[in-house]
Design a protein that fits this description.
InterPro entries: Cupin_2 (IPR013096), RmlC-like_jellyroll (IPR014710), RmlC_Cupin_sf (IPR011051). This is Cupin. The chain is mainly beta. It has a single domain, classed as Sandwich (Jelly Rolls), CATH 2.60.120. It has no helices and 8 strands. A hairpin with a 2-residue loop joins β1 and β2. About 15% of the residues are buried.
Length: about 100
């Protein structure tokens, strides 16, 4: 048995990406952020759809069209494939734990 809130590294100088499950058309990933953002240039432009849920903390996603979505614990959204986006802010004072499900 595993727990999504366990085994969080003490050193979060780098964002942590952990694949929990991977199958032909599906990947489930836990992401732990603490003040991390996407690189200033470029966008995530994925071939898969992404459903993302914030389990703990707060983060912001910015989309190429200028829309900004702030997500807190319990908030989720679906990002269609090739919808360009980036993480523009995560809380620097606490861990933000994301559950991301990529599917085709």
């Amino acid at each position: 048995m595993n727990n999504l809130f366990s085994d969080i590294p003490a050193d979060l100088s780098d964002e942590v990406f952990q694949t929990l499950l991977s199958h032909d058309q599906l990947k489930i990933e836990r992401i732990v952020s603490k003040g991390h953002t996407s690189p200033p240039q470029g966008w995530y432009d994925q071939d898969e759809h992404e459903w993302v849920l914030v389990l703990q903390g707060t983060g912001e996603l910015t989309f190429e069209d200028g829309r900004v979505e702030r997500l807190s614990a319990g908030d989720h959204l679906n990002i269609p494939a090739h919808c360009k986006h980036k993480v523009s802010w995560t809380d620097p004072e606490q861990e933000t734990i994301w559950l991301a499900i990529f599917y085709r």
